[in-house]
């Protein structure tokens, strides 16, 4: 991550217990003005933190993770946070319908990057060698969860389109990465 003045990052490495411990440490050390989580699964912990400290809590809401909320702790907790950050208008509308009158304020925050600060540099020689690529070879990289629940991302369609793409770019490589 990048270091920005006034912002502290607390990675939990996928462990809810580690996140709870890290959050407790950060709260004791310097009470935050705002708590933002990048995944709705942490909403119960965020709600508890918000209740105990009065610190407002916001959560990112990524597509499929919130498109079909079931009644339960996560949906209940999300509805009690101060703000949700859906990544698209579609996700925002789904949340508004599902959480109804308990829906907190929504602010669409698309997954993106600052193209004025990020520009791809030269391809690292070790990656070119590992994947047997040439420096100027066209590459399509898709990074995604690869589960049956994510078929809507249509990676199968991309694979099926490959013969047509190869007619135009014969040395094109498709790289699929994810869990």
Summarize the structure.
With 179 residues, the chain is an alpha/beta fold. The protein is built from 7 helices and 6 strands, in the order H-E-H-E-H-H-E-H-E-H-E-H-E.
Give a verbal description of the structure.
By secondary structure, the protein is of the alpha/beta class. Helices cover 37% and strands 13% of the residues. The strands form two sheets. A four-stranded parallel β-sheet has the order 1-2-3-4. A two-stranded parallel sheet has the order 5-6. The model has no long low-confidence stretch (mean pLDDT 88).
Give the SSE map:
Blueprint lengths: L15 H14 L5 E3 L5 H11 L3 E5 L1 H5 L5 H6 L4 E4 L2 H11 L5 E2 L18 H6 L8 E5 L11 H14 L4 E5 L2
Parallel strand pairs: 1-2, 2-3, 3-4, 5-6
Q: Give the distance, in angstroms, between the N- and C-terminal Cα atoms.
A: 22 Å
- The helix count comes to 7
Form type: globular
The helix content, as a percent range, equals: 25-40%
Number of E-state strands: 6
Q: What is the radius of gyration computed over CA atoms, rounded to a whole number of angstroms? A: 20 Å
Give the class from helix and strand content and strand pairing: alpha/beta
How can the largest sheet be summarized?
A: 4 strands, parallel
Major sheet: order of its strands? 1-2-3-4
Poorly predicted residue ranges? none
Question: If you average the pLDDT, what whole number results?
Answer: 88
Order of helices and strands: HEHEHHEHEHEHE
Beta percentage is: 5-15%
């Amino acid at each position: 991550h990048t270091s920005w003045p006034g912002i502290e990052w607390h990675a939990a490495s996928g462990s809810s217990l580690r996140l709870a411990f890290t959050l407790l440490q950060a709260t004791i050390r310097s009470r935050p003005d705002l708590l933002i989580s990048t995944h709705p699964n942490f909403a119960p912990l965020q709600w508890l933190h918000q209740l105990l400290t009065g610190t407002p809590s916001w959560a990112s809401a990524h597509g499929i993770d919130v498109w079909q909320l079931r009644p339960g702790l996560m949906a209940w907790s999300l509805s009690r946070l101060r703000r949700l950050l859906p990544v698209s208008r579609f996700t925002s509308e789904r949340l508004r319908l599902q959480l109804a009158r308990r829906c907190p304020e929504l602010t669409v925050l698309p997954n993106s990057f600052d193209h004025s600060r990020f520009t791809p540099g030269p391809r690292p020689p070790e990656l070119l060698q590992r994947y047997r690529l040439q420096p100027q070879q066209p590459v399509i990289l898709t990074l995604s969860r690869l589960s049956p629940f994510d078929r809507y991302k249509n990676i199968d369609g991309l694979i099926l389109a490959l013969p047509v793409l190869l007619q135009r770019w014969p040395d094109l490589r498709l790289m699929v990465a994810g869990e």
